[in-house]
Amino acid sequence: MITVIGSINMDLVTVTSIDPSMGETVMGESFFTVPGGKGANQAVAAAKLGANVKMIGKVGDDPFGQEYMNYFNDMHINTESIQIEKSVRTGTASITVYNHDNKIIVVPGANHLMTSDVIEAYRDDILASEWVLLQLEIPLSAVEKVLEIAAEGNVGVILNPAPFHHIPSHWFELVTYLTPNEYEAKQLFEAYANDTEATELLKKKLVITKGNEGAAFFKNGELMTIPAVKVKAVDTTGAGDTFNGALAVALDDGLTIEQAITFAIKAAGLSVTKMGAQVGMPTKAEIEKMEVNHHEETRNAE
Questions:
Q1: Which residue positions form the known binding site for substrate?
Q2: Which residues are catalytic?
Q3: Which domains does the chain have, with CATH numbers?
Q4: Has residue 95 got a pLDDT over 90?
Q5: In this predicted model, what pLDDT tens digit does every residue of 226-250 receive, in sequence order?
Q6: Which of 19, 56, 94, 299 has the fewest CB atoms within 10 Å, measured from its CB?
Q7: What does residue 171 show for φ and ψ, rounded to 5 degrees?
Q8: Binding region
Q9: Which residues are K(+)-binding (predicted)?
């Protein structure tokens, strides 16, 4: 089982052709809500790939919270460990899309109530997992508690250090893999530039996502890059979350880290060919179809 512990947000998206100034009112083009939050995104990515997924998190007792619980159930994600907080709002991200760019305001809501005590209450869930997926959209004290419990039970942990926060070096010992993007990896190395021991340990745990360049990891002390698949990108939102969910699935299936990264790159590549973070996340059948098509294209080119 893969257990995902993290944020659950409802994205409130407004599309406009006019970027309003402060105090100005303009007419927008469209509005829609989309399930989001890095934790929920990664859980959906893993579930769509056929994994047995449990989500640990919090939503409010508002309509967004109920909508999300129904959605998780439709996605066959175990919701037994999602707490519904009374008189609290579900986390939201208000997104204004203008000229192919966006402005985002995140209100954590119920996500902010994910304390270390809450994590302790789900100790048995964590210890029963093969892999745990974490991000940094819940309080860091809660993340640290998860790491400690997982280490006690020798449970594999993938920590996606996003949005970036400074993390203590002893976390490097507790995680199995850290999955920053290039910017986050740079921040980590800069933070520990004078600590050789921490830097060397960090290298052993890193899987660096590099967008349309693929992903990289250290093999025998050398940085090795696995190239991205060639696709026509439509929307890159959620590609990193797709990568992390797929990486967990592949490792849970017993693949080596190099094989797992290759699988995750394919999943992330397919995810950007459709609009929407979770909508674009692929199934295993879609990845297998892509592999067959790529093999045929390669054979025909010979």
A1: 9-11, 37-41, 137, 241
A2: 241
A3: 2-6+38-58+76-82+113-296 (3.40.1190.20)
A4: no
A5: 998 888 777 677 789 999 999 999 9
A6: 299
A7: -65, -30
A8: 9-11, 37-41, 137, 181, 209-214, 235, 237, 240-241, 271, 274, 276
A9: 235, 237, 271, 274, 276
